[in-house]
Amino acid sequence: MKKQFIAGNWKMNLTLDEAGDLARKLYVELDNSSAVDIGVFPAFVFLRDICDIFHGNKVYVGAQNMYLEKSGAFTGEVSGGMLRDVGCTHVIIGHSERRTIFLETNSVINSKIKAALSCGLKPIVCVGEKQEERDADKTYEVVGDQLSEGLAGLTSEEAGELTIAYEPVWAIGTGKTATPEQANEVHTFIRNTIKSKYDVDTAQSIRIQYGGSVNSKNADELLGQPEIDGALVGGASLESGSFLDIVSAAGRLS
Ligand code: PGA
């Protein structure tokens, strides 16, 4: 079994003080065991402070988004190099909120993944279908397109740097979780897609997280599925107790 990767997507939440308190609680509570990989993804403006709190120990720190160019006249945007500069190791790319609200296409996501990799950031690439797409039996078609267009042109070494997060859009922030079986089925599809695009080794080594209303109650069952290698957690990552419960659930499996 691969090492599980539990990531907390804080989204546009918390004040600077609250973000600092949450990070310090996690730092104190987490032991030094490396049984589980853990990451937090605060808002851009808090990244430097949160990186300082963890100073490279116990928890990876990453951004929720980045721009695809290295520098220049792109008012309001943040480059991968800037993220590296403040201590980030990871970046979430293609979250469904970026796709839906900020109209990011698979092709933009593909460029962002390449830009992240070129400056040494490890992307968590999000994929997932909307409710109407699931109802129309289009889950595999949608997720298949997100993977083939999103990962276009990546070598197997580059693909090996990615974490994929399967986040059914209908399960995000709704309290409606995919059943462990539903999630495991799509994870299997994702792994098979990676296998046919690359090779068995890449497919086996890549971690596929589940995201969408993961909490302390459902974590055991979801993470216990054979093809689920971790979780991308939104709401339940804003409170240290529930996030640590999910980390513990992952720890029991490793
Ligand atoms: P949620 O969010 O856990 O609040 O559903 C998950 C995500 O959007 O990454």
Q: What would you say this structure looks like, in words?
A:
With 254 residues, the protein is an alpha/beta fold. It has a single domain (5-253), classed as Alpha-Beta Barrel (TIM Barrel). Helices cover 44% and strands 15% of the residues. The chain is built from twelve helices and eight strands. It has helices at 16-29, 47-54, 80-85, 96-101, 106-118, 131-135, 139-150, 156-159, 180-197, 200-205, 219-223, 240-253, and strands at 5-9, 37-41, 60-63, 90-93, 122-127, 163-166, 207-211, 230-233. An eight-stranded parallel barrel has the order 1-2-3-4-5-6-7-8, surrounded by five helices. Helix 2 links the parallel strand 2 and strand 3 (60-63). 43% of the residues are buried. The structure holds 2-phosphoglycolic acid. 2-phosphoglycolic acid (PGA) is lined by residues 9, 167, 172-173, 211-214, 232-236.
Find the structural class using helix and strand composition.
alpha/beta
Write down the domain tally: 1
Spatial ordering of strands, largest sheet: 1-2-3-4-5-6-7-8
CATH topology: TIM Barrel
Q: Report the sheet with the most strands, covering strand number, pairing sense and barrel closure.
A: 8 strands, parallel, barrel
Distance between the termini: 7 Å
CATH superfamily: Aldolase class I
Q: Summarize model confidence as the mean pLDDT.
A: 96
- What Rg is obtained from the alpha carbons, in whole angstroms? 17 Å
The percent range for helix content is 40-55%
Q: What order do the SSEs take from the amino end to the carboxyl end, as H and E?
A: EHEHEHEHHEHHHEHHEHEH
The poorly predicted ranges are: none
Q: What is the highest CATH level, the class?
A: Alpha Beta
Task: Please identify, by name, the CATH architecture.
Answer: Alpha-Beta Barrel
